[in-house]
Every structure is written in structure tokens, then in C-alpha cells.
Amino acid sequence: MKIVRKKERPPKKEVFLKKALEEAQRSLQDAYDGLANVKEPELIDSYIYELNAANLRYQVILRDYKSLKEQNSSII
Prior knowledge:
The chain contains two helices and no strands. It has helices at residues 12-36, 41-75. Helix 1 (12-36) runs antiparallel to helix 2.
């Protein structure tokens, strides 16, 4: 039986933020793809708003993820 030390497991928050970061990247890519494929002014505006929201969400999650990684590296 192998004993796993607590330090070897990624913290739950890190796993959560990593998944959230991946989802934010997909949302950002989806918004770019949608914007590239529309011609109606209303839909263009909609995708611009979606793009801005996805970009902000990505930046916040990335900042939190980097901060957590820095905290974890200073503990070790």
C-alpha cells in the first residue's frame, strides 16, 4: 500500500482553478469563433460583449491561479 503525502496531491482549489481556466479559454475561443462568423450588427455586438466578458473572466482566473501557485511554491 502506497502512502500519499498531502503535498503530493494538488489542492482542491488548484484543481478547481485549472478547470475554470480551461473553461474560460474555451469560452474565449468560442466568442472569437462566433464573432468571425456573423454579419448581423446585433450579433456582432453580442459577440463583442461575450468576448469582453470571457476575456475578463480568463484574466481573473489566471491571476488567481498564478497567485495560488506562488503561495504553494513558497510553502515548500
